[in-house]
Q: What sequence folds into this?
């Protein structure tokens, strides 16, 4: 198999995995985990900025299938990479 064909097959396999994932669609529950309440969605259209996501909240989002460790956006690290980094920081006494 040529390098180009192998790369195409790897991409197709990745896409099959992405399309077969079942992500929890309950945005109200997701928002409760992240913000502590289900915010009024009329205040924002497509997204809402947040900060201070704790390791515990991230674990809850993962447990309830709102995200998976393999997820990423663009060139950013995967959720698993963020999660491992946060755990290392916590062990060193940094806020998480």
A:
């Amino acid at each position: 198999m040529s390098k180009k064909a192998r790369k195409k097959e790897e991409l197709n396999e990745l896409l099959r995995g992405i399309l077969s994932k079942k992500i929890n669609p309950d945005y109200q529950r997701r928002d409760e985990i992240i913000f502590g309440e289900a915010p009024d969605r009329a205040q924002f259209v497509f997204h809402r900025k947040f900060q201070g996501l704790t390791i515990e909240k991230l674990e809850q989002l993962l447990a309830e299938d709102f995200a998976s460790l393999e997820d990423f956006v663009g060139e950013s690290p995967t959720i698993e990479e963020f999660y491992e980094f946060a755990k290392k920081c916590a062990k060193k006494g940094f806020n998480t």
Notes: The radius of gyration is 17 Å. The CA atoms of residues 11 and 17 lie 10 Å apart. The helical segments are 3-20, 27-35, 55-63, 79-91.
